[in-house]
Specification:
Blueprint (H helix, E strand, L loop, with lengths): L17 H6 L9 E3 L7 E3 L31 E2 L3 H16 L2 H7 E2 L3 H10 L3 E13 L6 E11 L5 E12 L5 E4 L5 H10 L3 H19 L2 H35 L1 H11 L3 E11 L4 E3 L8 E4 L5 E7 L4 E6 L2 E6 L3 E12 H17 L10 E5 L3 E4 L8 E5 L4 E7 L4 E6 L2 E6 L3 E3 L1
Parallel strand pairs: 4-8
Antiparallel strand pairs: 1-2, 3-5, 5-6, 6-7, 7-8, 9-12, 9-15, 10-11, 12-13, 13-14, 16-19, 16-22, 17-18, 19-20, 20-21
Helix pairs in contact: 2-3, 4-7
């Protein structure tokens, strides 16, 4: 009988993960990546085959806080820095033990969902073996790009499974190393993208991917175990999210009377509204909603500027476009201006309603064959309206059946579940 590990729970505000940033460049590095039921710990590239062009370069270090330029391909170093090795071993030990408090202190900017996955995955993981750290210089002084080879020993499987994880390591003001999952600087993002398509990095990814694929393809029991783990993690994370939301809602209800009185007073007052002007750093798709499956309205030109109406928590920006609204990925834009004006609450509310009306008018229902009984492929939130900011009506767990009423070009679907009608992202729907 295996021992159940003690977990320490602590949660931080959701912020952008470095893997989300690198994920948008997966066409260069990792067209197909697997996650060993965890996890933040076992992500590898499967079919990366592009190579860095033969342009010579030198990585010149700058002062702390300034970025580096890639002028030369620098080979990876193996286990070259004791302090980096110590940090990574501490991180993996905490992951194996489900110690969320230690993980959160080491991995700054890690999203709550990923933290929940790490804690839940500890029930399946006995430990990590043969950890080898390959490093390249990072984009700022005191930073590293680490490629961590590890072998995961599962409780219910005799052999250790190989994996590879990419980590961006920085130094804080006190000289202490930490894993940075909250990168937003465009120069750093571009540097990391270029490093991750260098030949030695792709060769390492392919080597580990080959080892993993051969192991899984030759052992049906391992493949089945990984599938069960993945399904178990989805349920565990979904339940934890639901529990967290229930606690938050209960706390909100206790102060609802006070807030209502405050809102009644503020509705008659003047409010300050700040908007930003943002500039495209590349040619980027302009979409009809905040989803990569939504319709592409147009494309930006590099250097083209837009009025940012709202920076959404999911990494998208709502922009003013052709007398209406549209959406773009925030990470590919830089703020170049700011405007602050004072308006009455009535005016602000009217503008908000007009924006909603404009958005609603652009909805297009897709063919009726995409309606009826369908399953959800992952744990999702049933929301009151077509927005990731709207009220959550219910948690729908992976494998549940919903009745799809309509699907929209915006990437959302209207569904019925558990006697409630709301909206989920269409990308999580599969036919039964």
């Amino acid at each position: 009988m295996r021992k159940r590990k003690k977990r320490n729970y602590s949660f931080r505000n959701s912020r952008k993960n470095i893997f989300a940033i690198l994920g948008d460049n997966k066409k260069y590095l990792m067209p197909v990546a697997f996650v060993l039921a965890v996890v933040i710990t076992v992500a590898i590239a499967l079919s990366a085959n592009k190579r860095m062009k033969e342009s010579a370069t030198v990585v010149a270090e700058a002062d702390l806080g300034s970025t580096l330029e890639i002028n030369e391909i620098i080979p990876m170093s193996e286990n070259a820095y004791d302090d980096v090795n110590y940090l990574i071993n501490e991180y993996y030990e905490a992951s194996a033990n489900g110690d969320s408090e230690t993980i959160a202190s080491i991995y700054k900017g890690l999203e709550d969902t990923e933290l929940l996955k790490a804690v839940a995955a500890a029930d399946y993981i006995e430990g990590f073996r043969n950890i080898t750290v390959y490093t390249k210089p990072g984009p700022v002084s005191g930073s590293y790009v680490a490629y961590v080879y590890n072998e995961v020993k599962l409780y219910d499987y005799d052999k250790a499974v190989p994996g590879l994880e990419t980590l961006y390591i920085c130094t804080d003001d006190d000289g202490k190393l930490y894993i940075n999952g909250d990168i937003a600087n465009a120069s750093e993002i571009e540097y990391l993208r270029q490093v991750n398509v260098q030949e030695d990095v792709i060769d390492l990814n392919n080597k580990v991917a080959t080892e993993y694929n051969e192991m899984v393809n030759s052992d049906e029991a391992l493949a089945e175990l990984l599938t069960k783990m993945r399904e178990g993690l989805q349920v565990s994370v979904g339940e934890a999210l639901a529990s967290s939301e229930a606690t938050t809602n209960a706390a909100a209800e206790e102060t609802s009377t006070e807030e209502a009185a405050t809102e009644a007073t503020s509705e008659e007052s003047v409010v300050t509204v700040t908007t930003h002007t943002i500039r495209a750093t590349d040619v980027i798709n302009i979409r009809s909603s905040d989803s990569e499956t939504a319709d592409i309205i147009s494309k930006t030109k590099k250097g083209e500027e837009f009025k940012q109406l709202e920076a959404l928590a999911n990494g998208w920006s709502k922009i003013e476009y052709n007398n209406g609204v549209a959406y773009v990925k925030t990470e590919f834009f830089e703020v170049v201006g700011e405007e602050t004006v004072e308006v009455s609450n009535d005016t602000a509310n009217e503008e908000s309603q007009e924006t909603q009306t404009t958005t609603d008018d652009t909805k297009t229902t897709v063919k009726s064959s995409d309606t009826g009984k369908m399953k959800v492929s992952d744990t999702v939130r049933l929301r009151k309206s077509q927005s990731t900011e709207s009220e959550v009506l219910e948690m729908i767990y992976s494998g549940s059946t919903v009745n799809v009423v309509e699907q929209y070009a915006s990437g959302w679907a209207k569904v019925e579940y558990n006697k409630k009608t709301g909206y989920i992202k269409s990308e999580f729907l599969t036919k039964e």
